[in-house]
Amino acid sequence: MAGAAALGGVGAAEALAARPGGGRAPHPKTPEEALRLLQAGNKRYRQEKLQLRDYSPVGEKRAAEQQPFAAIITCADSRISPELVFDVERGNLFVSRIAGNGIDSGTLGSTEYAVGVLGVKLVVVLGHSDCGAVKAAISVVTEGKAYPSSKYGAIGQFIDLLVPTVKSLPDDERTLARCVPANAIAQAQDLARRGPIVAPAIAAGAIQVVAGVYNIANGAVSFVK
Ligand SMILES: [Zn+2]
User: Fold this and answer.
1) Which tens digit of pLDDT belongs to each residue from 6-38?
2) Which pLDDT score, from 0 to 100, does residue 8 have?
3) Cα–ligand 1 centroid distance for 225 (angstroms)
4) What is the DSSP secondary structure assignment for residue 7, as one 8-state letter?
5) How close is the Cα of 8 to the center of ligand 1, in Å?
6) Which of 26, 55, 135, 161 could cysteine-pair with 102, CB 3.0–4.6 Å?
7) CA 130 / ligand 1 centre spacing (Å)
């Protein structure tokens, strides 16, 4: 990547100091502005025009506080790196991960903290292409596959979060290409209904909850409805 080549190069500190923003965190005032920041960052990522980032220790000031502008709930898949995909700084995104990007007590509570305490403007439920958890949920519905805890430990628990959405689709739509966006949308809708923090924040216009799908092959994030 053109941008990546410069990251560790000689003169990186000078380049960082010179670039617009100088490494400071953006502070969007609205959910729409936060979404535009993520979309612009993803465009830079796809075009291999990542802004130069400072990956050195953050220093005392930034170690003592965080002001993320968006919360992301995404899959544990090793090929997803939200800060890279959206080309933002450490400290900009509050990320919760669970295989299949479902809403469980962990991802819900973490996101409630991001909304209620940290004041993020936007929540993104981010699914992705080639998701193994969604594949597993499809196999449960279409092949009767089971994940008993005696053999699979807690693996079945995150798959169970995805099964209702696969079941809700007609037989001929239970494909990975269809189920991945359907799951991201369903989880976002589930999250948006949750009280006492998320639903009231949406009603007040303080946040938006959106669903997205990350295409691992080309890096594009599509925001889906
Ligand atoms: Zn996945």
Assistant:
1) 444 434 445 444 444 444 568 899 999 999 999
2) 41
3) 19
4) H
5) 30
6) 161
7) 7
